[in-house]
Amino acid sequence: MTETDGIGAMWRHKRVLAASLIGTAVEFYDFYIYATAASLIFPALFFPSSSPTAQLMASYGSLALAFLARPLGAAIFGHYGDRIGRKATLVISLMLMGGSTLAIGFLPTYAQIGWWAPLILCLLRFGQGLGLGGEWGGAALLAVENAPPGWRARFGMFPQLGAPVGFIAANGLFLLLGLVLSDADFFAWGWRLPFLGSAVLVVLGLWIRLKLTETPEFAAAKAEAPPPAVPLATLLSTHLGAAIAGTFAVVCCFAIYYIATAFALGYGTTALKIDREIFLAIQLGAILFMALSIVLAGWWADRTSPTRVLSWGCVGTVAMGLVFGPAMGTGALLPLFLILSLALFLMGFVYGPLGAYLPALFPVQLRYTGASFSFNLGGIIGGALAPIVATWLIAMQGVALVGLYMSAAAAISLAGLWWTSRHA
After folding, report:
1. Nearest residue to 372 (alpha-carbon basis) of 361, 388, 387
2. Which among 129, 190, 293, 356 could bridge 69 via Cys, Cβ 3.0 to 4.6 Å?
3. How confident is the model at residue 1 (pLDDT cuts 50, 70, 90)?
4. 350 close to 410: Cβ distance less than 8 angstroms
5. SS3 of residue 215 by DSSP
């Protein structure tokens, strides 16, 4: 390789990593501004009043709706991603996801248009989920299929770094708005600004992605043999076991994320009566531990294996889940910060290696479908029901049992990891 070739490869890698990072940053920004609004704002503005708990449960139901749409998005975008290519599919998924988020920022409330408000909100949430269904898998493949030898896990961790980046942008903006606006202005119009601001991130993501070329591995596989006519059908007939195991392996990371973020925010600001800005600041500090552990997990996975790192992360989560509920129940700021930091630190180890782990379960021409389908089905089990089940557990038994949801999710993920380690 000449010096010119080396410089060209370096710049190509930087563009690829930036494109995979910005896409998942937009994904988590969009997803988390909705999760934050679903905890703080949407219950009162978009759902008819009966009781605060019923409003919150209805709002969390709309949050879960996107998880149900994600497997459909995975099937649609996976189909075209495996047949046409990664680049074009990622551009379309980003536009659908960003457009749905932007439209929420213009949506009238229940007081203005009645039942049309929650109905349209749910349709836009479904659109978010549809676009998101094709986003993560394509971003992961964009990274790992361009990785040099021995760097797949470290390249594959870049889409995962989009999670803390998007979270910090979302929570930071809500925190800033809460500091500069009165509660009346925040509920009247201030909450719309984060949704409108998504357009800036989407334009940046499109500008980067339109400059990309197709991944070398996909181009080589397509030149060698035509892609399957229906990738999902081929996946289910020839790699069903891997798809199920991959789905189980993903459950833990979603459970941690939505318990430690969406549920914790709703519980902390309502049941514990902690000031919204204080709790957002606690979560912003805790998410930095997740960013750190994602980087550590990528480095560790390249030196051992993604399966080993994911397994140890799940073992740690089983133990953490036992103390999560009691720590939350204290209502004291220091224990809250420590337990949220520990939960999100462990999430880095059950999330960071997924970019290398899931694509390796499937052949190149089924990877987009396989990785996307497993990731998004795991999201339903681990993430869609997490805030709802946690709220129900509190109503039935108190906060002490909430962490057991994460322990159970980690046990499910360990089962999936065990299967793939036996059949690799």
Report:
1. 361
2. 129
3. very low
4. yes
5. coil
The CA R_g of the chain, rounded to the nearest whole Å, is 21
Q: How far apart (Å, rounded) are the C-alpha atoms in residues 136 and 127? A: 15
Q: pTM of the predicted model, to two decimals?
A: 0.86
Structure tokens at 162: 């989009």
In one-letter notation, the amino acid at residue 292 is: L
Q: Which helix (H) or strand (E) holds 388?
A: helix 386-397
> What is the distance between the alpha carbons of residues 324 and 230, in angstroms, rounded to a whole number?
44
Dist CA 43 CA 105 (whole Å): 16
What phi and psi values does residue 171 have, to the nearest 5 degrees? -65, -40
C-alpha span between 63 and 40 (Å, rounded): 13
Neighbours of 294 (CB within 10 A): 27
**CB-CB contact of 302 with 151 (8 Å):** yes
Q: Helices 367-379 and 52-83, interaxial angle, to 10°? A: 170
Q: How far is CA 379 from CA 90, 99, 157, 218, 370, in A?
A: 19, 22, 18, 26, 14
CA distance 175 to 244: 39
- Which residue's structure tokens are 């980046």? 165
What is the rounded CA–CA span in Å between residue 300 and residue 294?
10
| E strand or H helix at 348 | helix 333-351
CB neighbourhood size of 103 (10 A): 17
Which pLDDT tens digit goes with each residue over 289-327?
999 999 999 999 999 999 999 999 999 999 999 999 999
Q: What is the DSSP letter of 226?
A: P
Contacts of residue 409, defined as CB under 8 A and 6 or more positions apart, other chains included, come to: 251, 252, 254, 255, 256, 317, 381, 382
Note whether 81 and 89 are within 8 A (CB): yes
| 230-245 exposure pattern, b = at least 16 Cβ within 10 A, e = fewer | ebbebbeeebeebbeb
3-state secondary structure (DSSP) of residue 109: coil
d(Cα 150, Cα 45) in Å, to the nearest integer?
Answer: 50
- Dump pLDDT digits (tens) for 133-151: 888 888 888 889 888 888 9
Distance CA 19, CA 30 (A): 17
φ, ψ of residue 214 to 5 degrees: the values are -70, 155
Cβ pair 298, 156 in contact under 8 A = yes
Q: Which two tokens stand for residue 369?
A: 């479908």
Query: Three-class SS of residue 404?
Result: helix
Domains of the chain: 9-213+231-423 (1.20.1250.20)
Q: H helices of 259-275, where?
A: 264-270
